[in-house]
Write a structure and sequence with these properties.
heterodimer, A: 270 residues, mainly alpha, MetI-like fold, B: 259 residues, alpha/beta, six-stranded mixed beta sheet, four-stranded antiparallel beta sheet, 10 strands, globular, ABC_transporter-like_CS (chain B), P-loop_NTPase (chain B)
Chain lengths: 270, 259
């Protein structure tokens, strides 16, 4: 007979093994899907199932990436786009939180602002592009402004709602200690909505990319959005697709970084 | 001398289309160190009355005096305990307890020692740096009690603080709160819908009725019961007698088709 003391541990080991196996299966399939996609793309392009001039091919894309990386031109474009996106993302989020706080500080002010916020939220922000360019010039400032503008209103609305959804009894407790409205905000409202703020960060990562790429479409002489438009104009779709691949990679990295930040912030706060 | 006086306090709730009279002509006076209970069905405005005394809700007419001065919001003299503990989950136990002094920007270094002493007094040691999430409901409510007491309020308002706890924890906590408040000679008002709890803890019981909220009857708890801790009160022969009388009063009121 097997020793009784071991069975608990054995069960635990078996459970751990199962979890590991499941994880391995999922990752294997994810990689297989990626490889299948790339493989099919390559084959389809070589056998002219799709027009290689329009849809390029993975080998072509890799070649473009390497040659452009080697002469340093691509790095420059990546740097400028990343800088614009991160700046737009941070400014959009911070200004949104600031606006939400101002709205929370005065119920009357928030009532007055309500219809304007609805209109600004409904309006496609990229339509303001030409005005931004006229006002802020054709440099990176207007592109950053676009990246920020696209996320600022939705951030304001989401965070303001989160502020209002905090259990009023927390405010009641603080009021019974004689807290001012600012103290209520600092001690209860703001920390209680931190998770909501972090989840808007994730949304804003995607939005800032939209704003910056559209901004670059309109005006830029540098950046990945510019490369896409340039590639389109000279009919170099390998360049367009290379830029797209880079955008996908960096957007994913940025999203992952924000996710890490979320885990870290939430853990340190509870 | 009366410590807390309510003089014809009336309160309305207004909505866009109508109004409700939540409280009508509430007059009562409470002595220093007295423990009174407000007992009544839900909707009789007992919690509203507490909020008015706390200065959080502004009543529509009448006067509230604490030590002969009109009560005002942000009065440090009032301590409030709610149905749930409402500890801040992102603050440690000690930070939660010290929120009152923090809001008053008190720099008294002795306050920390006092906080730890009070925590010990309610049987909580070695948890100062824990977060509320790791504590049981009863422990959390004890932390909330300490948070309230640390502010050294003149009067404590207890808004059904035991209603969310399981029965055993509730009985134990009743004893703890009662003895602690007696030890500090605090005046307290307990809102509850539990007749037993009201008798076990209070010196006087105000029975309220709803629509509009009014005081329908006042019961004096016999002196023999007042001297006992809540747990032993429930075993006293006079407890059942008073329980039946209060029960009858509440039954009478609920006979109204009001609710």
């Amino acid at each position: 007979m097997a020793p009784e003391t071991n069975t608990d541990n054995q069960l635990f080991q078996r459970h751990k093994y199962k979890l590991k196996r499941e994880k391995r299966i999922v990752i294997t399939w994810q990689l297989l899907l990626l490889l299948a996609f790339i493989g099919f793309w390559e084959v389809a392009s070589r056998l002219y199932w799709i027009d290689p001039l329009l849809f390029s091919s993975p080998s072509e894309v890799i070649q473009v990436l390497f040659s452009n990386m080697a002469d340093g031109s691509m790095v420059k474009h990546i740097q400028i786009t990343l800088f614009e996106t991160i700046a737009g993302f941070i400014i959009g989020t911070l200004v949104g939180i600031l606006f939400a706080s101002v709205l929370w500080s005065s119920t009357r002010f928030s009532k007055i602002m309500d219809p304007y916020l609805v209109i600004m939220n409904a309006m496609p922000k990229v339509a303001l592009g030409p005005i931004l360019i006229v006002a802020l010039g054709t440099g990176y400032v207007s592109i950053i402004a676009m990246g920020a503008l696209i996320s600022v209103i939705i951030t304001t609305l989401v965070i303001y709602n989160a502020f209002n959804e905090v259990d009023p009894n927390y405010e009641k407790v603080l009021k019974s200690f004689g807290a001012t409205r600012w103290q209520q905000f600092k001690e209860a409202i703001f920390p209680a909505t931190l998770p909501a703020m972090i989840s808007t960060l994730k949304v804003n990562v995607g939005l800032s990319w939209v704003g910056v790429i559209v901004g670059e479409f309109l005006v830029a002489k540098q950046g990945l959005g510019y490369l896409i438009i340039y590639g389109f104009q000279v009919f170099d779709f390998s360049l367009v697709l290379s830029s797209l691949v880079l955008i996908a990679i960096f957007a994913a990295i940025m999203y992952k970084v924000v996710e890490r930040l979320e885990g870290w912030l939430i853990k340190s706060k509870t | 001398m009366s410590f807390l006086t309510l003089d014809h306090v009336t309160h309305h709730y207004f909505s866009a289309s109508s109004y409700t009279k939540a409280l009508k002509d509430i007059s009562l006076s409470i002595k220093q160190g007295e423990f009174v209970a407000l007992l009544g069905p839900s909707g009789c405005g007992k919690s509203t009355l507490l909020s008015i005394i706390a200065g959080i809700v502004e009543h529509t007419s009448g006067n509230v005096f604490l030590e002969n001065t009109p009560i005002k919001p942000s009065d440090k003299a009032i301590g409030y305990m709610l149905q749930q503990d409402y500890l801040f989950p992102w603050k440690t136990i000690l930070e939660n307890v010290m929120i009152g002094p923090k809001i008053h920007r008190s720099n008294d270094p002795a306050i920390r020692t006092k906080a730890e002493m009070l925590l010990k007094q309610v049987g909580l040691t070695g948890i100062s740096d824990d977060y509320p999430g790791s504590l049981s409901g009863g422990m959390r409510q004890r932390v909330a009690l300490v948070r309230t007491l640390l502010n050294d309020p003149k009067i404590l308002l207890l808004d059904e603080p035991f209603s969310a706890l399981d029965y055993q924890t509730k009985l134990k906590l009743e004893d703890l709160v009662s003895t602690t408040l007696k030890a500090f000679n605090k005046t307290a008002i307990l809102v509850t819908h539990d007749i037993g709890e009201a008798i076990a803890m209070a010196d006087r019981i105000f029975v309220m009725e709803a629509n509009p909220g009014m005081i329908s009857k006042v019961f004096e708890v016999p002196i023999e019961l007042r001297q006992e801790a809540p747990f032993s009160v429930r075993k006293h022969p006079k407890y059942q007698m008073l329980f039946d009388k209060v029960w009858e009063e509440l039954e009478d009121k609920e006979g109204n088709p009001a609710e």
